[in-house]
Amino acid sequence: MVLSGLNSLLTFNQYVLNAYYGQDMALLKALEELHRLSREDFQRIPELAINPLGDRIINAFFPEGEDQVNFRGFMRTLAHFRPIEDNEKSKDVNGPEPLNSRSNKLHFAFRLYDLDKDDKISRDELLQVLRMMVGVNISDEQLGSIADRTIQEADQDGDSAISFTEFVKVLEKVDVEQKMSIRFLH
Predict the structure, then answer these.
(1) What global pTM score does this model have?
(2) Cβ(70)–Cβ(36) under 8 Å?
(3) What is the pLDDT of residues 37-71, one digit of tens each?
(4) d(Cα 119, Cα 129) in Å, to the nearest integer?
(5) In this structure, are residues 167 and 125 in contact, taking their beta carbons and an 8 Å threshold?
(6) What share of the chain has pLDDT > 70, as a percent?
(7) What is the DSSP letter of 121?
(8) Count of domains observed in the chain
(9) Residue 42 maps to which CATH number?
């Protein structure tokens, strides 16, 4: 059922792209409203169902309080995972930052940890995400130790939490562009 739903969405994408590139915004809007995905549609995708952060990833596709996402919202979230091509790295610095930029990828990842959306990752939030990731394979004491050490290493302003700036600093040597990229078409 999910495959047929995704297949119809992909077929539908051809029409949407034609409408978009043809500047037929009325047609694009009409097509978008015909196809919506629910949380249940995402939960039927096996890779998300088995992913410990699957629910957090699924939630990222939905605006606050919404249970469905249209094509534009789906593609907007998915755009974060598009690889950055070499020719994109030297784009106009005055233009809007692409959704797949390093900064936007880091914001996306940060929001997976910032459960209460207060712009910082607390020890409790870090523990919740770690529990999601490792399940019962590690004791609460070990998880607490990992969370404490992570916050101690990342926290530069002494507030016992990780801000976005501190999150970025910790990941400055990580190839986020590669690790948060999915090649959709070959």
Answers:
(1) 0.73
(2) yes
(3) 888 888 888 888 888 888 888 899 898 889 888 87
(4) 16
(5) no
(6) 75
(7) E
(8) 1
(9) 1.10.238.10
